[in-house]
Amino acid sequence: MRRTIVIACCAIILGGVLYAANRHGQRSDFELARYYVASFHDDTGAQNAVAAIYLNYRIYDTLFEALILLAAISAMLHFFEIGGRK
């Protein structure tokens, strides 16, 4: 019973994250590109747009990838119960 509740909570959280990510993607790519080109200097202080995008804007991708990796590892440890019950 407890495992079912944990799985349901994980599914709800994952669904919420995916919904939020999809909702953010409603901006067109062209609109987003114009924003980056117009405001990279004010947002990051970098002199080069390419460096600003790679070094400053991409940190969010890295953080979310690490969060997803942590969630996957936690789920695997939970489901396989390393060490067994004593």
Concise summary:
The protein is mainly α and 86 residues long. It has four helices and no strands. Helix 2 packs across helix 3.
Shape descriptor reads elongated
How many domains is the backbone divided into?
A: 1
| Global structural class | mainly alpha
DSSP helix fraction: over 70%
What characterizes the major β-sheet? none
Distance between the terminal alpha carbons, to the nearest Å?
20 Å
- Total of helices: 4
Radius of gyration: 19 Å
Overall mean pLDDT score?
A: 81
Annotation, overall tally of beta strands: 0
Provide the low-confidence segments as ranges: none
Q: How big a fraction of the residues is strand?
A: under 5%
Order of helices and strands: HHHH
Tell me about this structure.
By secondary structure, the chain is mainly α. The protein has one domain (2-80). Helices cover 81% and strands 0% of the residues. The longest helix is centred in the first third of the chain and has 23 residues, at 2-24. The radius of gyration is 19 Å and the shape is elongated. The model has no long low-confidence stretch (mean pLDDT 81).
Essential attributes:
elongated; mainly alpha; 86 residues; 4 helices
